[in-house]
Design goal:
Layout lengths: L5 E3 L3 E3 L4 H6 L9 E5 L2 E5 L8 E6 L4 H12 L5 E6 L3 H10 L5 E6 L3 E6 L5 H28 L5 H25 L4 H30 L7 H23 L3 H23 L2 H29 L2
Parallel strand pairs: 5-6
Antiparallel strand pairs: 1-2, 3-4, 6-8, 7-8
């Protein structure tokens, strides 16, 4: 492989790095590379190929939200080996709870004052698209299980739904990490997809909140209008699935029109419904809105603008 030497300023000579090599190793502007000189040869070594990036951090709080957000930010970084220290004993409890939500991370050591985490994940472009499909399918299954329980007035297996939501979040965090390391999408596409992924995770959480409400209230029978609204929410989500898989831009207009009509219908029904049905319809309205929002973002993804 030959590269052209470029003059910058008065005395500086530079060469560019092959894009494929930088993408495979997750190298971006600002990163440092090891350069070794051997007679007439220069050897360039990336951190990803050499010593794994490691970091030692002290957790200032043992609060659940704080621990969760610190872990999330560290997972999305290039750090492969992590040592955390803490003073509050609750920190370990939440570390144990949330480390398993990050695909590839393992707790190697843990005690009352410190723990070590290592990333064993191997990143592949094919994984990104396959795991995206799993997120979409899991959310669809989540909604249909809740719908079936509500329609048939049967108990919802909340433990199964929580497990599905757990996997959806693991897959979502993993996709974010792959997207950052591999630069699979362009700048605007990456931002659009990031918003879509975030909203998918919110939709999953909303379904869980709805399931928890239904479980606590012994699944009182819902009105037929509520069941019908739930069916329509499932249908517009299936339309979003179709757009993602078949990439038909005409369906984006259909999604927008159908979603807005459904939101208006939900608001109208909420004004007439009893308390129990109003709560369910409120969740359905928000989910319908979140699904509809994806139309414009899908256009960015499909058009590459």
């Amino acid at each position: 492989m030959r590269r052209k030497v470029i003059k910058q300023g008065n005395n500086t000579l530079t060469i560019t790095l092959p894009r494929k090599w930088t993408v495979e190793r997750g190298i971006k502007a600002g990163d440092e590379l090891e350069i070794k000189e051997e007679t007439s040869t220069l050897i360039i070594n990336s951190n990803a190929q050499g010593i794994p990036k490691s970091k030692k951090i002290h957790l200032d709080s043992g609060e659940e939200y704080y621990v969760q957000q610190v872990l999330r930010n560290l997972y999305n970084s290039d750090i492969e080996e992590l040592e955390l220290t803490y003073d509050e004993p609750t920190a370990l409890k939440y570390l144990q709870k949330y480390v398993i939500t990050f695909l590839g991370w393992e707790l190697l050591e843990q005690d009352e004052s410190h723990c070590k985490i290592k990333n064993y994940a191997v990143y592949d472009d094919k994984d990104f698209f396959e795991i995206n499909k799993k997120i979409i399918i899991n959310i669809s299954s989540l909604s249909e299980l809740i719908y079936k329980g509500l329609k048939e007035n049967k108990d919802i297996r909340l433990d199964s739904l929580l497990s599905m939501n757990h996997n959806i979040y693991r897959f979502g965090n993993y996709c974010r990490k792959i997207m950052k390391r591999k630069q699979i999408l362009s700048g605007n596409q990456s931002r659009a997809y990031s918003h879509i992924l975030t909203d998918f995770l919110i939709i999953s959480s909303l379904y869980i909140e709805l399931a928890e409400y239904l479980s606590k209230n012994d699944l009182k029978r819902a009105a037929k209008t509520t069941i019908n609204l739930f069916e329509e929410v499932i249908m517009i989500y299936k339309l979003l699935q179709k757009i993602l898989t078949q990439r038909n831009k005409k369906d984006i207009v259909l999604l927008d029109n159908s979603g807005k009509k459904l939101q208006a219908k939900c608001i109208l029904e909420m004004s007439k419904a009893k308390c129990h049905d109003t709560i369910i319809q409120h969740y359905l309205c928000i989910i319908a809105m979140m699904i509809t929002f994806q139309g414009g973002r899908m256009m960015v993804l499909l058009e590459g603008i």
